[in-house]
Amino acid sequence: MITLKGENIFLRALEPEDLEFVHEVENDEAVWEISNTQTPYSKFLIKQYLENAHKDIYEVKQLRLVISNYHNETIGLIDLFDFDFKNKRAGVGILVKSVSDRAKGYGKEALKLVVNYSFVHLGLHQLYCNISEENEASKKLFVNQGFQEVGLKKDWNVVNGSFKNEYLFQLIKNN
């Protein structure tokens, strides 16, 4: 049963069949800046990760969901990370893999579904995200979903030998 459904996409749990997709994403140097990755991942490690993906967010402090369209094509991934039940917050990250799938509203729908899931089902009070200073599309996406810029972390990440700033955005649930 699909519980996280949007108009054009749905979110689902990771499955063993996602091995190739996750392997491609994790080994795409173009997105390493977004994911703070520095080295490639083997299929063996990703297979192990997928085998443990069923574990509860309360146990592993993370939830990765697949963004799929209604033709069952995998479009991207959306993550809740640094899940902190005590303080009722988590980070959120999103990736629409193919450039041809971007700017079509898939990320917007996925983020809206995860925000609702986080506040209603997980009982979180706030979500946050970290966005590179140059990533205008992500800044626009998160701002359009109600996230507010709350800070600039100067020289936060080293990318190709240069320091880059990163913004911190936050969404606090209206009670």
TrEMBL record:
The cross-references to SUPFAM superfamilies, in alphabetical order and at most eight, read: Acyl-CoA N-acyltransferases (Nat) (SSF55729)
Q: Name the domain of life.
A: Bacteria
Q: Indicate the segments forming the N-acetyltransferase domain, all copies.
A: 9-170
Xref: InterPro entries: Acyl_CoA_acyltransferase, GNAT_dom
Q: Which PANTHER family match?
A: GNAT-FAMILY ACETYLTRANSFERASE, SPERMIDINE N(1)-ACETYLTRANSFERASE
The protein here is known as GNAT family N-acetyltransferase
